[in-house]
């Protein structure tokens, strides 16, 4: 069998991040998360072998390991193998394979890179093993549980959907489950107004989100109010995207920023505040923390004519503008 090559986009969350963690959305009745797939990809090349040998190469980690068989890999204590082990155990192939992985996302970028990579791995092994998933929801459910095993902390589900479907995603969380709507990007201002900037500092989503979960479980009134505020903003964001009311996005991004920082100060950082100040001085309309913040990437929303000016100012200040654009539905 020839090599199987799979790639998946990552995402920028526009509103409602953190609300996708179970059981947070149950505490506030329901929730909506809005995100957009971007052309920052994870990639896997999976090549079946005729023997039992397993060769694993991660270009991001600078890792290349060879094992006599899968069982030997699974008991190896190397922490670099943590992300791969649950996927390998899930499929438990009876023959060896070579796997090369690569991610274009900065480490700790807040773009859902690890979730995208798990989707990429699951799609590659699904092709090899000849086992397809009944729905996007089923694939997300499996990926979600596998990553929770890796992180050993509560995880959300919003990151997997754009990796599977691309496009502009509106995800609704209710007691009945999760429903997904995928909107096209043609005719939207994303290509001209969307600027993604890496702060240079990795974020730690699991830590930030877990603190929120603990406070919500303890019925902290301030936390629950902030979660409701984020829900209301995400509902308005979803309506703005569905109704092509793009002029509403800057104010919604700014409100989301304030509500998120009020939820937990660790969602922001000195680097993010500096980037925000520089961007706004350059004529940006809004700044949106990506993922659980504390570092990672930031979405800067600008007028098309100011986009390059803002990008140059950010780069001059030591930040790293990324040449990334949203991805149409796959």
Observed structural traits:
single chain, four-stranded antiparallel β-sheet, 12 helices, 330 residues, alpha+beta
Total beta strand runs: 11
The percent range for strand residues is: 15-25%
Write down the Rg. 20 Å
The biggest beta sheet reads:
7 strands, mixed
Helix and strand sequence: EHEEEHHEHHHEEHEHHHHEEHE
Write the layout of secondary structure elements.
Elements: E1 4-15, H1 24-27, E2 31-48, E3 54-58, E4 63-67, H2 70-74, H3 85-91, E5 97-103, H4 113-129, H5 136-151, H6 160-165, E6 168-174, E7 177-183, H7 190-193, E8 194-198, H8 205-217, H9 221-242, H10 249-263, H11 270-281, E9 286-289, E10 297-301, H12 307-316, E11 320-322
Parallel strand pairs: 3-5
Antiparallel strand pairs: 1-2, 2-5, 2-6, 3-4, 6-7, 8-10, 8-11, 9-10
What do these coordinates show?
With 330 residues, the protein is an alpha+beta fold. 40% of the residues lie in helices and 24% in strands. It has twelve helices and eleven strands. The chain has helices at 24-27, 70-74, 85-91, 113-129, 136-151, 160-165, 190-193, 205-217, 221-242, 249-263, 270-281, 307-316; strands at residues 4-15, 31-48, 54-58, 63-67, 97-103, 168-174, 177-183, 194-198, 286-289, 297-301, 320-322. Strands 1, 2, 3, 4, 5, 6 and 7 form a seven-stranded mixed beta sheet that branches. The chain has a four-stranded antiparallel beta sheet with strand order 9-10-8-11. Strand 3 and strand 4 (63-67) form a beta hairpin. Helix 3 packs across helix 5 (136-151) and helix 4 packs across helix 5. The longest helix has 22 residues, at 221-242. It is globular, with a radius of gyration of 20 Å. The protein starts with a strand and ends in an 8-residue tail after the last strand.
């Amino acid at each position: 069998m020839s090599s199987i090559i799979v790639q998946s986009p990552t995402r920028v969350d526009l509103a409602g991040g953190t609300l996708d963690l179970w059981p947070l959305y149950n505490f506030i009745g329901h929730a909506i998360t809005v995100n957009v797939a971007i052309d920052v990809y994870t990639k896997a090349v999976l090549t079946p072998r005729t023997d039992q040998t397993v060769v694993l190469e991660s270009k991001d980690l600078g890792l290349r390991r060879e094992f006599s068989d899968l069982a030997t890999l699974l008991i190896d204590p190397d922490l670099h193998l943590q992300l791969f082990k649950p996927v390998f155990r899930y499929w438990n192939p009876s023959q060896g394979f070579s796997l090369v992985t690569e991610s274009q996302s900065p480490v700790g970028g807040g773009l859902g890179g690890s979730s995208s990579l798990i989707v990429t791995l699951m799609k590659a092994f699904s092709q090899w093993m000849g086992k397809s998933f009944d729905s996007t929801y089923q694939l997300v459910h499996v990926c979600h549980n596998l990553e929770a095993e890796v992180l050993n902390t509560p995880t959300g589900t919003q990151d997997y959907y754009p990796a599977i479907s691309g496009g502009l995603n509106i995800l609704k969380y209710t007691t009945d489950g999760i429903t997904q709507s995928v909107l096209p990007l043609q005719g939207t201002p994303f290509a001209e107004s969307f600027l993604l900037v890496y702060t240079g500092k990795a974020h730690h989503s699991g830590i930030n989100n877990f603190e929120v979960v603990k406070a919500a479980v303890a019925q902290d009134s301030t936390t629950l109010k902030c979660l409701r505020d984020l829900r209301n903003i995400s509902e308005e964001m979803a309506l703005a995207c569905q109704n092509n009311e793009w002029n509403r996005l800057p104010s919604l991004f700014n409100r989301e920023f304030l509500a998120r920082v009020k939820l937990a100060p660790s969602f922001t950082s000195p680097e993010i505040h500096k980037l925000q100040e520089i961007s706004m001085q350059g004529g940006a309309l809004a700044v949106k923390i990506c993922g659980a913040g504390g570092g990672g990437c930031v979405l800067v929303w600008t007028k098309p004519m100011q986009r390059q000016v803002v990008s140059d100012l950010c780069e001059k200040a030591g930040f790293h503008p990324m040449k990334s654009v949203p991805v149409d539905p796959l």
